[in-house]
Amino acid sequence: DQQVKQNSPSLSVQEGRISILNCDYTNSMFDYFLWYKKYPAEGPTFLISISSIKDKNEDGRFTVFLNKSAKHLSLHIVPSQPGDSAVYFCAALSAGGTSYGKLTFGQGTILTVHP
Amino acid sequence: DAGVIQSPRHEVTEMGQEVTLRCKPISGHNSLFWYRQTMMRGLELLIYFNNNVPIDDSGMPEDRFSAKMPNASFSTLKIQPSEPRDSAVYFCASSFRSTGNTIYFGEGSWLTVV
Fold first, then answer.
1. pLDDT of B58 above 90
2. Which of A56, A58, B45, B46 suits a disulfide with A63, CB 3.0-4.6 Å?
3. Could you tell me which residues come within 8 angstroms of residue B41 by beta carbon, excluding any fewer than 6 positions away?
């Protein structure tokens, strides 16, 4: 039972254009959604998060949108840079009770930004 | 801030041997997590601690796996005896629960059991 899904294994974008990474989830009880970036041989690096009560959060070039009715979120990177090339993981977090900290990850999307 | 520190970064061991992975969380963080990444299952939570107490170990695959957190600045994940199917990257992560919707990961320990 995959509660968090990233249906696109890979995405290729030209430098300067927008990258849109998508994520779907099934559990409406998640409290936060997080995006992580991961380079080979390194640990996941936190990028940006959004509370389940918000619909948008922006931090520099990164914006996350949440559509609760559709159980869908997306990460927008504008403008995309070659250094953004990495694997991007969507994760969902339950913040209460014994489930706290149980980050449920999607499978990841490989983003390649071409110069 | 030094971040979450894990050791060893790489470990190659023979089947049947004991493996101990170590983690130092970010200073001041009160929650610590062990995750495992494999090709088949992706990133999955093994166990997490809050204020040094194990809260949820439902992700620990079997009795060969054990984790301890003797104090706020140190945790171990032990596999005894190790098997080839334990080969994976093991990540430690930490957060500050009261404000914590952000969990910070270490660089990972790459385990190969031959």
1. no
2. A58
3. none
